[in-house]
């Protein structure tokens, strides 16, 4: 199994909406600055993939756009980790666009990156396992990084810190 390297200060992390497009909806707009602030506290830079904030309707109708975002995150050498916005219920629709794409498969096998998310993202974890890459069933943006409290939950903070060199 290919294990991604730990994050370092100033690394860029991609935010992807591989299932539900909630993060792109106005009712979740408060999550973005809070997640950005918390990632910056870890010394990381948040980068949205092109379709991440296009909302629920668009992303539901365009699994190819969601798959393209994941592929772009793996293609971009400046991106060191990939964090799911949230789970959902139809990530399986991405599999034909990814598992039939030799370029994507080669990117994952030759350029492993930290991937974290849970719930519907389990499909992605199984895909990465099949491709020989370690992934992490862990924090996502809406449920964890932008937890509506003065600070992240201590457990979540410690779990996320495990992705960062010298913090875990």
What does this structure look like?
The protein is α/β, with parallel strands linked by helices and 168 residues long. It has helices at residues 31-41, 55-61, 63-75, 95-99, 102-110, 122-130, 141-145, 154-161; strands at 12-16, 45-48, 79-84, 114-117, 136-137. A five-stranded parallel β-sheet has the order 2-1-3-4-5, sandwiched between helices. The longest helix has 13 residues, at 63-75.
Distinctive features:
5 strands, 40% helix, five-stranded parallel β-sheet, single chain, 8 helices, alpha/beta
Question: Helix count?
Answer: 8
What is the element string, with H for helices and E for strands?
EHEHHEHHEHEHH
Spatial strand sequence of the major β-sheet: 2-1-3-4-5
Radius of gyration: 15 Å
Structural class: alpha/beta
Number of strands: 5
| First-last Cα distance | 21 Å
Biggest beta-sheet profile = 5 strands, parallel
Helix content: 25-40%
Q: Look at the structure and give the mean pLDDT.
A: 95
Principal-axes shape call: globular
Q: Note the beta-strand portion.
A: 5-15%
Low-pLDDT parts are: none
């Amino acid at each position: 199994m290919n294990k991604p390297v730990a994050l370092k200060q100033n690394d860029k992390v991609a935010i992807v909406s591989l299932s539900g497009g909630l993060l792109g909806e106005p009712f979740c707009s408060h999550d973005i600055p809070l997640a950005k602030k918390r990632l910056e506290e870890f010394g990381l830079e948040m980068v949205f993939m092109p379709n991440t904030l296009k909302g629920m309707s668009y992303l539901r109708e365009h699994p190819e756009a969601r798959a393209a975002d994941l592929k772009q995150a793996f293609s971009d050498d400046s991106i060191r980790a990939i964090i799911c916005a949230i789970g959902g219920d139809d990530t399986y629709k991405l599999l034909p666009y990814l598992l039939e794409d030799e370029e994507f498969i080669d990117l994952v096998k030759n350029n492993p990156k930290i991937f974290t998310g849970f719930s519907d993202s389990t499909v992605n974890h199984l895909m990465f396992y099949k491709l020989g890459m370690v992934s992490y069933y862990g924090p996502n943006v809406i449920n964890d990084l932008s937890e509506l409290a003065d600070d992240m939950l201590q457990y979540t903070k410690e779990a996320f810190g495990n992705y960062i060199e010298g913090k875990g």
